[in-house]
Amino acid sequence: MGRVVLVTGVARDLGRRFARQLAAAPDVDRVIGVDVQPPRGDLGAVSFVRADIRNPVIAKVIMREHVDTVVHMSVLPSSGSGSSSAAKELNVIGTMQLLAACQQSPDLEHFVLKSSTSVYGSSNRDPAMFTEDMAAKRVGGFGFVKDINEVESYVRGFARRRPDVRTTTLRTANALGPGLNTPTAAYFKLPVIPTVLGFDPRMQFLNDTDLIDVLEHATLTDIGGTFNVAGDGVMMLSQAIRRLGRPALPLPGFAVGPLGSAMRQARVADFSREQVAFLAYGRGVDTTRMREVLGFKPSRTTEQAFGEFAASIEPGVVSERRVRAAENALVGALGGNRDTTTSGELHG
Amino acid sequence: MGDAEIIPIGTRGKPGRGTGSAKPSSSARGLAPKAATKTATKNPTPKPLIDPIGQGVFDAPSGQVPAPRTPAEEVARAVHPAGARTAERQPTAGIPAVDWLAGFTSAAVEVFGADWEPRLAAFLAFLRRRLTGDYTVDEYGFDAEITQYFFMAAIRPVAEKWFRIEVRGVENIPSTGGALVVSNHSGTIPVDGLMTAVTIHDHAHRFLRPLGADLVFRMPVVSEIARKGGVTLACNEDAERMLKNGEIVGVWPEGFKGIGKPYSERYKLQRFGRGGFVSAAIRTGVPIVPTSVVGAEEIYPLVGNIPSLARLLGVPYIPITPFFPLLGPLGLVPLPSKWIIEFGEPIRTDEYDAGSADDPMLVFNVTDQVRETIQQTLYGLLMQRKSVFG
User: Fold this and answer.
1) A positions 246-265 inside 8 Å of B (CB)
2) Are A236 and B127 an interchain contact pair (Cβ–Cβ within 8 Å)?
3) Strand partners, B58
4) How distant is the alpha carbon of residue A44 from its chain centre?
5) Count of domains in chain A?
6) Are B114 and B179 part of one and the same domain?
7) pLDDT of residue B51
């Protein structure tokens, strides 16, 4: 008999695509999608249950359907409209209720949490690359960083109480992909991209299909534990903005916050406090464990994931095509017809 | 000027610049349009001409021979004879594109030399790659390209011309594999770190990866440049990670105690932290290269501090030197002391097993050995140095 999987947060694009892909996997009998809102697209073979995970209904669904695997991927930062306290209610209280329901279920064998690398926070005291056993340097934290840390600690508590359940936590980097709507994508789609003056953070990205693949891999293997998931390599924010060909608007650190909340009000982009810290200090995570223990290798590096995203949106004013054209014109005027693509690198 | 030549003097009544030939030069003809011929004959003395290649003003009738024209000048003249009327001579009348091109060409020859074409193309390709973000950084944010061609090029003249750094024992920096360069720290502003980095780059052809305090990463602009230049946070995780990857890691264990000590305590090593750098070296089995820098103490002699203001700004100290803040920004110019950087004989750590990194007694002993080596070398170098600015 195959697996019966319950997936939370299927109204979101990523959740819906993951649930559909999982339903097509040979070892999986049934996939039940849960969310408070109906999904925006086609769910295919996935059965949808419109329920709030804070509601006891969820426990009944898990019992009646003999769910053996729960994939919890509805822990999200507050979206543009919602306040951070509402997000906390959904994330922390929702996870508590879901775990309480799981603990009662005798059929449950696997629990997968889609966490985020935000769990490490961002500060000037951060090591270059976080490994899984490190914690956020700034204790306490705020907003989503605090939420996700609490969620993870509840999941660890659950793993202690139910040692027979394999528990996997995936700390994923910012997902980017063509057509994917996330706060990160909204930020990079701004015509002029605000940055923190004098800081150039390191960032890692994960291609959206890689994110879905790693969730599927973690759901179907028998390996438990906590894993960082990100594309190989890092990019600087300045580099990413240049690849988009968009102008950057460096603002002093104290001005980014107010601008962010104004944009949040206008629902243009999401700038929470932790987002501002991330734009100043950045973050990198070590993915050795993902490759060696979990046995997953992302198909795209950070640069490739960003490149695919950049190709899918309209290029900015300083696009690569224009820069190349200007260069060709200049070289052509000075030295006759020369092809810059064949010209050598600097100093040989 | 020994061999005298017979030079015809004057223009012999003809307008133009006394080339001595019967035919006036093209520019001379341009200067004397037909309408002005009569005036020219009435007053055969032309006005002083300004030499177009900037050798000064000379008077044509006083009989000096102009320098031979350069080929570029000749080209410019041929393609664009001087306008005859004032209206034609107005700068807004437009310099033809050909002239601009000739100008650019000669400028390019000046800057890039004879093979300017491929080099200019390469330079433009470099600009394009920077502008479109087509480069890679390593996981610490180190941008090798900009460091090599920009940061190093900017620091190098200071190292060679201003501080006249004398380098000793460069063979002690391994050409491959990891090593931990441990150095004394001084000079109010960490200029010694920059100088050690450029010295290792130029003499040992390796990039130094310095470890910086968390304050570095809190300061705007400084944090951005530091990451791109290869600095990472001074913590055990980063140090071990870099050493494992075979990098040359630079550490200044005295920290702010060393760099911000008063001038009266110059060349007296402060406490070497908690020896974290030694345990990182033992865990990764890389050699420790004790490095002594002489000269950095004198660049900004620290004679005072404003602790209250420092606390307010959250920095370790606000320096007062004999010239800062008295002379304002001018006081920020470092004094041109003579520097000596000596890389000492490496201290091997690969014979200890990895577990001994947690043995505090061993770590203290090795820390002390490194500290003593640097202190003794400093005294030795000071004895050899003739004077501070020598």
Assistant:
1) 252-253
2) no
3) B49
4) 24
5) 1
6) no
7) 45
How far is Cα B187 from Cα B261, in angstroms, rounded to an integer? 9
Cβ atoms of A171 and A229 within 8 Å: the answer is yes
Rg for chain B, CA atoms, rounded: 32
Give the span between the Cα atoms of A285 and A280, in whole angstroms: 16
Domain presence at residue B152: yes
In a domain, A135, yes or no: yes
Q: What angle do CA A291, A295, A298 make, to 5 degrees?
A: 60
Tens digit of pLDDT for each residue in B131-162?
Answer: 889 999 999 999 999 999 999 999 999 999 99
Q: How many domains would you assign to chain B?
A: 2
Q: How many CA atoms lie within 13 A of A337 on its CB side?
A: 0
Give yes or no for a contact between B187 and B158, defined as CB atoms under 8 angstroms apart.
Answer: no
Do B224 and B100 share a structural domain?
A: no
How many A/B residue pairs have CB atoms within 8 Å? Answer: 138
Q: Is residue A129 within 8 angstroms of chain B, CB to CB?
A: yes
Q: Which of A82-86, A183-187, B225-229 has the largest mean confidence?
A: B225-229
All residues at 6 or more sequence positions from A133 whose CB lies less than 8 Å from its CB, including other chains: none
Interface test with B, best of A122, A137, A346, A347 (most B CBs within 10 A): A346
Per DSSP, the three-state class of B320 is strand
CA gap B32, B10 in Å, rounded: 17
Q: For residue A72, what are the domain limits? A: 3-176+206-232+285-312
Question: What number is the ipTM of this complex?
Answer: 0.86
B181 and B107 housed in the same domain: no
Planar angle of CA A102, A105, A111, nearest 5 degrees: 40
Whether residue A332 lies inside any domain: the answer is no
Strands A235-236 and A202-203 come out as antiparallel
Residue A124 maps to a domain: yes
Contacts of A303 in chain B (CB under 8 A): 136
Distance CA A146, CA A156 (A): 15
Q: Spell out the residues 6+ positions from residue B247 whose beta carbon is closer than 8 angstroms to its own.
A: B178, B207, B209
The first and second tokens of residue B340, run together, are 């000596």
Give the structural domain span for B117: 71-77+94-134
Same domain, B121 and B251: no
Task: Specify the pairing of strand A3-8 against strand A248-251.
Answer: unpaired
Same domain for B214 and B107: no
- State how far the alpha carbon of B61 is from the alpha carbons of B57, B58, B315, in Å: 12, 9, 70
| A210 Cβ contact list (under 8 Å, min separation 6) | A229, A231, A298, A299, A300, A305
Which of A188, A205, A239, A276 best probes binding to B when mutated, by most B CB atoms within 10 angstroms?
Answer: A239
**B137, A198: Cβ pair inside 8 Å?**
no
Tokens of B376: 């003794």
Average pLDDT, chain B: 83
Do B98 and B205 lie in one domain? The reply is no
**CATH number of the domain that residue A211 is part of:** 3.40.50.720
Q: Which of B260, B268, B89 is nearest to B188 (CA)?
A: B260
| Contact criterion met (CB < 8 Å) for A129 and B120 | no
Has residue B64 been placed in a domain?
Answer: no
Domain membership of residue A251 (yes or no) is: no
Q: What is the pLDDT of residues A186-240, one digit of tens each?
A: 889 988 999 999 999 999 999 999 999 999 999 999 999 999 999 999 999 999 9
Q: Which of A310, A236, A338, A307 is nearest to B124 (CA)?
A: A338
For residue B59, tell me if it sits in a domain: no
Do residues A338 and A331 make contact, with C-beta atoms less than 8 angstroms apart? yes
Chain A residues with CB under 8 Å of B215 CB are 124
- The pTM of the full predicted model, rounded to 2 decimals, is 0.81
Closest CA to B170 of B317, B10, B334, B342: B342
The interface residues of chain A toward chain B in range 190-219, judged by CB-CB distance below 8 A, are 196-200, 202
